[in-house]
Amino acid sequence: MNARMNMPPNVKNLDRLKSKKKKITDMTPEEAAEQRKKWREEKRKSSAKKKQRKNITEVTREPENPISRSDLSILNGFRRKCRFLVKKCRYLQQNADKLKTEKEKYKKRLHRLKIKNTKEVNSLNLIISKMRAREEVLESTLKKTYQSTKSHNDKKIFKKIVNNSTNKTLVTKILGLIGKTRGKKKKIRLINIDEITKFYLRDDVSRITSGRKETRTQHKKKKQIRYLMDTLVETYKKYKDGGGRYGFTTFFKHKPFYVLSPRLNARDTCLCIKHSNLEFQHAALRRCGALKIGMREALSNVACDTKKYTCMYGKCELCKDKKLDFESSENSKTDDSNVSWLHWERQDHTYSKKEGTETKEVKTKRTKKITKSGTLQDLKNIFNEELHNFKKHHYNMQQQQSQYQKAISQLKDNEVVLVCDFSESYEAKLASEIQAMHFGASKNQITLHTGMVYWRDKSQSFCTIAESNNHQPPAIWAHLTPIIRLIQEETPNVDVIHFFSDGPSSQYRQKNNFFLFAHFAKELQLSFATWSFFESGHGKSVADGIGGSVKRVLDRKVCHGFDITDAKDAYDILKQCLKVTKVFLVPDSAITDMTHILPKNIQPLKGTLQVHQIMTQDENIIQFRDVSCFCEPFRGCCTCFQPQIHSVVSTTNRGGERIHREQSVPKPPKPLQPGRPVLVDISLEQNQIQIEHKETIKSLEGSSLAAALPELAGTFDISDMEYLTNLDINIDNSEEPVELMDINVIPIIIAPKPKSTDGQNPEKENKSTKRWSTYNLLCQKCKTSIVGRKAKCMSCKRLYCEECTDGPTEWDYLCDTCLEGD
Questions:
Q1: Which residues of 102-125 are buried (b: 16+ CB within 10 A; e: fewer)?
Q2: How far apart (Å, rounded) are the C-alpha atoms in residues 580 and 461?
Q3: CB-hemisphere CA count at 13 Å for 728?
Q4: Which stretch of DSSP H or E encloses residue 381?
Q5: CB distance 483 to 499 below 8 Å
Q6: Where would I find the beta strands (DSSP E) of 239-285?
Q7: How far is it, in rounded angstroms, from Cα 271 to Cα 265?
Q8: Which residue ranges make up each domain of the chain?
Q9: What pLDDT is recorded for position 419?
Q10: In CATH, what class is 413-600?
Q11: Are 586 and 636 in contact (CB under 8 A)?
Q12: What pLDDT does 353 receive?
């Protein structure tokens, strides 16, 4: 009722009228038709009135002042602006109402917060007043106690309280401290990061991985991952034992980002069997409580000095029979207790193989990880025995790694270090393969021989590629040939090469490689050369990392749609992609040529597997020793570790008896240039020297040469020349006598025929007359004098000119006669 009273008058009348009227839906059909008729009439009348009103207005209105278009547009603009302002006023009014509501809301909220905060402030003031009272009591107590102390040590304790306090000034005032000791500011020490990095990258500290996916990238620098050989704590102990000067925090902070601790999914599959078996036994003894020290301490307890050769090789009288003392306590097991430990062992394995209709049993060897068991006393005896055998292995590993680092860090201008190793053969891949190709045996294996060459001030990585899967010494030297050429081109003054590699008996450490090593050292006119072998099971080097990066490049190219079917495809891709590593292609013919150099009378070296370094200064003669040494000033040719002498080729005397030259190594003659005229004072007839085709030489009398070459008289000292026997000077292709002044003379060592030694002084028997002779340098093929560069056949030693050998070849040439004969 109240709502109805508040309505406007027109609304009340409308409701009243509507209440009296009857809706058309409530009428009968006759009433509805009548009502509609009335509506039509009213509508007709209303329309007529509107039309009449409109006509009257048009007739009576006469435009006095017509509005122009410009005024009309101004008027329309004014109307639009009015409409906009009205709308804006309406919006602002609504916004003002909302803000007023918000204001009232926050005003009420502020009032409530004030009431709440007042309660909290009152409670906090109560707590603060209690704390102030407590602090005042504590302050007065400390002040009285400090004033009552008389000893200097007690006052130091209070000063420490001040130094450790956050409010030093306030605490100093409270206690009454005067003249607080002010420490000097420590100077910031510059950290030599390279020292720590080089230690982490040592091969005896971390091992490099060879997998193509085992990389890590930081700041756009991709590096091959290395895994630590021991825990970080043990590694730090090794760093300090070696003279490290930084703390553990700095040592860990500056660890290279690609040196990681090994994980299970990155486990090493190339572990040393000797280390693994001894670690298994050591772990079992620690579980039983019989041993509480680590492997390093255990090794130190059975040797006077772990870095001394005689102690680690069992030659020291003080420690050769020394045994390890084990722990005995109540918690440890008794010696009769049963224990078990793991062990790697090679076992016989037999399997059946079908050949046609027959079935054969084939015996082979398999390496298995087995569990051994026995008493604790048996394990102690085995561990003591294995530990003594392990000393030699451990020393070889440490010595080879340390000498490897020493050889690289102390290189001279005329020396290089060459590290090489065969990488795992790369399996040829296609961008898309059918099933038979992918799972079948249709893919080629590409041989990769990788390594690094170190000069004094630079280094160069390399990779040689071959289609042949041969890894024997002829293949090794076919792979090394382009690398040695590279060394000669980069530094022609190099006359000493130190080789480093692992020591498999089927590849590097065998008699054929020893012969080729001595042979090429002589052909290259090196002063001397050395070859060092890493200890078995510890041959990982930088070459493995290079192999992994090379395979990664090849795989990436295959993913991008390239096909690699043979060594030539791999060489072309690597030559294009690798910017730092030098790549060379080794043809099969180069390996075949190297095979022809090997004689049939190569003499094996007894105890080859114990040798870790060989040296050579003369062809067919090598020195060998147990471990490597590069001490100054000889750098590989010293007498440390008792080097022995071996002749790689067995010789026979005139009676057919074999002679093994194993007593002394002849000193090489001073290097002389071929084709250089030399003064000769010797008669061929008096010394009974055999020369074929004597008509080619007009005169070799000393007087003639002395007259022809007076300027060379007395310029050569022949006291250093060596004794040789059975010397024949072959000039079988000469056609015409040659005048003396036209002869190119090279130095030849000639000894007179040995005379009877019956009744002579034994001291005079070893003395020999040492002289020089000459012969003409003629090409064996075109019969002309050799001018410029020459080639020497590695088999028959004959000389050929550059034109007949199809290019400049210094030492890797085989003539057609030797090739056809083989």
A1: eeeeeeeeeeeeeeeeeeeeeeee
A2: 7
A3: 7
A4: helix 376-409
A5: no
A6: 259-260
A7: 15
A8: 193-266, 273-349+360-396, 413-600
A9: 93
A10: alpha beta
A11: no
A12: 79
